[in-house]
Amino acid sequence: MLFNQQGPAETSVYMVAGYTVIFGFMLLYLVSLIVRRRRMARDLAALEAMEESGAQSNSVV
Amino acid sequence: MNNKPRLLSILDVVTIVLLVVATGLVFLYAPTEAVMGQVQRVFYFHVAANWVGMLGFLAAAVCGGFYLRTAERKWDIASLAAVEIGMVFAFIGIVTGSIWARPIWNTWWTWDPRLTTTTIMLLIYSAYLMLRSGIEDPDRRARFGAIYAIVGFLSVPLTFFSARLFRTIHPIVIGTNQPGAAGQFDMTAAMLQVFLFSLLTFTFIFADLLWHRIRLGWMEDRVEQLKMKLNA
Q1: Is residue B173 a contact partner of residue B47, using CB atoms and an 8 Å limit?
Q2: pTM
Q3: pLDDT value at position A60?
Q4: Inter-chain contact B219–A41, Cβ cutoff 8 Å?
Q5: What are the structural domain ranges in chain A?
Q6: Min Cα separation B224/chain A (Å)
């Protein structure tokens, strides 16, 4: 289809779609890393506090 | 663990700068291909994304091998990180390939050997993540994961060489195209420069994301250890 024409084909829409996918997914992955890191930091802080309080109560006993 | 290393901050900045420059080169420096038109520009980041995908799976297999030798947690964390990034970029590669194919092959999808092997490769690594999520014991999970990452890597060279070994319509950038390949083009010097720069840029993106994902992996590992300790 494309190879019988004069001059480049009008395919700009597909180029825009392609780069939207590329940057969109890269951004999504980056956001997922940030969100997971924040969640892990919160969990880690809570667990470390629990561990510390557990260790203190053991030392009192 | 929470303090970001200075080198990682530098890598972040370098990677962003490279990505901006590469994007500029793709849209402002690379010439418009004579037949395909603007959609050919997808090629630069499409190939680069697939490169990162394969690089991720290679890194996962290598880290898997190191884990089996040393049984050190760091190799398991790195292996998982590499697979995750590899999957994201292999997926980007397959979607952008489909978008390129619509005007060039007149179809979004065809069961061509390259497309089929790429899909199989993605499914193999999806199964890797499922396998890991199904095993609770961290050591057992790491051991199985390492073996799977090494065996699963067989799908990567098969995917890479599929366009060279089998009759396919998928164009080959480096080497000789099959007679039936549709959408091939002669790369000009400017196109080659942009292509190589894109590969370099995406290699930096891979390194940067891998480092961030490994840091997250260490936190996940610590959380898991604490949960096990508190539940014991």
Answers
A1: yes
A2: 0.92
A3: 60
A4: yes
A5: 14-52
A6: 9
